[in-house]
Design brief:
Layout lengths: L2 H14 L7 H4 L3 H14 L6 E5 L5 H7 L4 E6 L2 H14 L3 E5 L12 E7 L8 H10 L1 E13 L12 H6 L8 H8 L5 E6 L4 H4 L6 E8 L2
Parallel strand pairs: 1-2, 1-4, 2-3, 4-5
Antiparallel strand pairs: 5-7, 6-7
Length: about 220
């Protein structure tokens, strides 16, 4: 990742860390939202005890949730402040999660070392998402699972509202990525995949949403 873009992205998320969990689908503080995410994750992931790396883990909410279910968790995030909050959250919950500051596009994870790669709302922050997808698939053990939770938030017409030409040039999926685009990018890299629509389940988001939100769940060869 180009240093200036990486620094801008890290600074953006550092500034968001304090109140990031105020969003219902970020902090999962509401019981129904938390249960909705757990039900979805159980349906996509292998059985507990599987080793999961949560890339772009943010404040660690999904990592802590899965660790509480018996999964082995590592979390990686570019933002030092997000990692700080995530570590405190895991300590409060009494679960063992290894959180590490690092670039999710090139994470400090050995090839073929995990059963699951999980990333939520992350691809829009990456300068080379196609290269990153190839990197992520190589982290999986044979038959491993890649879970990408993505969308084009608040932009159903496909337009961007960022208004920053430099960032738009550096981050090709800055305004999010649609399911068809992501599926086309990932298809050559995996054995099989399925797309799950998440737009019609308000419990996941703590409110009704009207934009494109989905999970792409793939199996490595």
């Amino acid at each position: 990742m180009a240093e200036n873009v990486r620094d801008r992205v890290a600074a953006f998320w550092d500034a968001q860390a304090v109140d990031f969990d105020d969003e219902p689908d970020h902090g999962l503080s509401a019981r129904l939202v938390r249960l909705a995410w757990m039900a979805r994750l159980r349906s996509w992931l292998p059985a507990p005890r599987a080793e999961v790396v949560d890339l772009g883990c943010g404040t660690g909410t999904l990592s802590v949730l899965l660790a509480g279910e018996g999964y082995g968790l590592r979390g990686v995030d570019l933002s030092a402040q997000m990692v700080r909050v995530a570590r405190a959250k895991a300590a409060t919950a009494g679960v063992d999660v290894e959180f590490q500051q690092g670039d999710a596009a090139d994470p400090p994870v050995a090839p073929a070392s995990v059963d699951v790669v999980l990333a939520r709302h992350l691809l829009w922050t990456l300068p080379d998402p196609h290269r990153t997808l190839a990197t992520w698939t190589r982290l999986l053990r044979p038959g491993g699972t890649l879970v990408l939770i993505e969308g084009r938030w608040d932009q159903p017409d496909g337009t961007t509202d960022e208004g920053d030409p430099d960032l738009e040039a550096a981050l090709p999926w800055l305004d999010g990525v649609g399911a068809a685009t992501l599926a086309a990018a990932l298809a050559p890299l995996v054995e099989a995949f399925a797309v799950h629509d998440l737009s019609d389940d308000p419990q996941l988001w703590g409110r009704a949403v009207h934009d494109e939100r989905f999970a792409l769940v793939a199996r490595a060869s």
